[in-house]
Design brief:
heterodimer; A: 63 residues; mainly alpha; 2 helices; flat; B: 464 residues; alpha/beta; Amidase signature (AS) enzymes; eleven-stranded mixed beta sheet; two-stranded antiparallel sheet; 13 helices; 15 strands
């Protein structure tokens, strides 16, 4: 599955590097499934946002 | 000398900030080749600043206990006109046009920046083996890691290459190096210290805090850099109460929570012994130990990983696409992993963390602090990939982050302080978990423990 996603999304991850991360993703996916597949619809996500905060100026020009 | 010892002497003119900075720079020159704690040393700038501060103090304008004190900032805090690499070759020549809020507040207090401390590349890792700026070494054993990602900040304080430093903590990056280097590290409550001008790793998990050799010194720095800042939308504008740190404190009527599950499992035996001994110190000070049960922290640790993978990959997405070859192998792998996280999983993980925060709020309504080991193991060797803990072979990164990581989900203030040494002479850290925005009590309890022990007075052989 991960290989297909990587190909479809054109991530450009070389095969040898993809091979290393697939088992990590598999394991993580298993670890979180039980917690994330619960009905969490009545819980607010823990994000913060304030509309009156200005963005910092762009600081870095990657030449 | 500690900041508490130096401050009155600086104020009275007995100690000159210029001399103090000169001594610190000499020490950096002597130890930098062994430890590589700094990416940039701001010698000329620091000496000029020290002269100005000295004139101010002589003119009777002593500003704070940090006036004239040399410090280091992790090299992801923006410093105007001084390069800020974030540990990456991509930012090797980046000079910000403004100072991070925390750095600015330290300047206002009269503290003097002597350098930018080294870190794990992009602050994304726990070894501080930096492929672009070299390996940072542990002052207690230069063959071992100082921990990360704020490895340089902790190593510099431990080896007395500055008197305090700033770090950031997204999954343990203050507490791990504090434990491994035998210094005090405070991760303040999420929303307490402005992150304006701090290069992000995981915006909903990033925290700021100081390293120092004592709890009292860490408290000075914490009080100076905390408080309202409209430029950081996570900041909660609440009063910052000064900790009352007395000479012979007692902890009568205080309750110290001791988790019966998770935190005392899969530990190096020396870590377990040192932490259990620390608990008896609390009892001897009059505190009562309360048996508590924490939620499934293994599961929350995985949730914290998932959130961080997604947030860090969003920060670096374009850079990874365009300059893939300019990332170290470990960081590149983590950034690749983050591209596979579903937005729905990310948002549900952000929902799930509310439940953890709620559970800890309940726990902390019954006790004043929770005491745990800071990290399961003492500092591993540089390059070590796996280690044996609790009869299991574990990846170093997983073993080292097992205890610290999930707590970033709660945003609670966390204090790490020395509580012993392993049979190999490596420092061991104790972690105290406090209630949100109650750094005051956390620091007072940490100080009481510290006053009853001698661990914080030991200095690494390289600093002798």
């Amino acid at each position: 599955m991960w290989e297909r996603i990587a190909a479809l999304r054109e991530f450009g991850i070389p095969d040898d590097q993809l091979k290393e991360i697939v088992p990590i993703l598999e394991a993580l996916s298993k670890q979180v499934r039980r917690a994330l597949d619960r009905d969490l619809s009545t819980t607010e996500p823990a994000l913060t946002f304030r509309c009156d905060v200005r963005l910092s100026p762009p600081e870095f020009d990657e030449r | 000398m500690t900041i508490a010892e130096l401050a009155p002497q600086i104020q009275s003119g007995k100690i000159s900030p210029v001399e103090l900075v000169r001594q610190t720079l000499d020490r950096i020159a002597a130890l930098q080749p062994k430890l590589n704690a700094y990416v940039t040393v701001t010698a000329e700038w620091a000496l000029k600043q020290a002269q100005l501060e000295e004139q101010e103090i002589r003119a009777g304008r002593y500003r704070s206990r940090l006036h004239g004190i040399p410090f280091a900032a992790k090299d992801l805090f923006y410093t105007k006109g001084i390069r800020t690499t974030v540990g990456s070759k991509i930012f090797a020549d980046f000079e910000p046009s403004y100072d991070a809020a925390a750095v600015d507040r330290l300047y206002q207090a009269g503290a003097i920046l002597v350098g930018k401390a080294g870190l794990h590349e992009w602050a994304y890792g726990i070894t501080s083996n930096n492929p672009h700026f070299g390996t940072i070494r542990n002052p207690w054993d230069p063959e071992r890691i100082p921990g990360g990602s704020s490895g340089g900040s902790a190593a510099a304080v431990s080896a007395e290459m500055c008197h305090f430093s700033l770090g950031s903590d997204t999954g343990g990056s203050i507490r791990i190096p504090a434990a491994f280097c035998g210094v005090v590290g405070l991760k303040a409550t999420f929303g307490r210290i402005s992150r304006h001008g701090v290069f992000p790793l995981g915006f909903s998990l990033d925290h700021i805090g100081p390293f120092a050799t004592t709890v009292e010194d860490a408290a000075f720095v914490y009080q100076t850099i905390s408080g309202a800042d409209s430029r950081d939308d996570s900041i909660v504008d609440r009063p910052v109460d000064a900790a009352v740190l007395t000479q012979h404190p007692r902890l009568t009527s205080k309750k110290v929570g001791v988790p019966r599950n998770f935190y005392f499992e899969k530990l190096h035996p020396d870590v377990e012994a040192a932490t259990r001994k620390a608990l008896t110190v609390f009892e001897s000070l009059g505190a009562s130990l309360v048996d508590i049960e924490v939620p499934d922290m293994e599961e929350y640790s995985a949730i914290a990983r998932l959130i961080l993978l997604a947030e860090a990959s969003s920060v670096h997405a374009r850079r990874l696409e365009e300059r893939r070859q300019d990332f170290g192998d470990d960081v590149r792998s983590l950034l690749d992993q983050g591209r596979f996280i579903l937005a729905t999983d990310y948002l549900n993980a952000q929902r799930q963390r509310r439940h953890l925060a709620e559970k800890f709020r309940d726990l902390l309504s019954r006790v004043d602090v929770v005491a745990t080991p800071a990290v399961s193991v003492p500092a591993p060797k540089i390059g070590q990939k796996t280690l044996q803990v609790g009869g299991e072979e574990q990846e170093v990164r997983i073993a080292v982050t097992r205890i610290p990581r999930a707590l970033n989900l709660t945003g609670l203030p966390l204090l790490t302080l020395p509580c012993g040494f392993s049979s190999e002479g490596l420092p061991i850290g104790l972690q105290l978990i406090g209630s949100a925005f109650d750094e005051k009590q956390l620091l007072e309890i940490g100080h009481a423990y510290e006053q009853s022990t001698e661990w914080h007075k030991r200095r690494p052989p390289v600093a002798a």
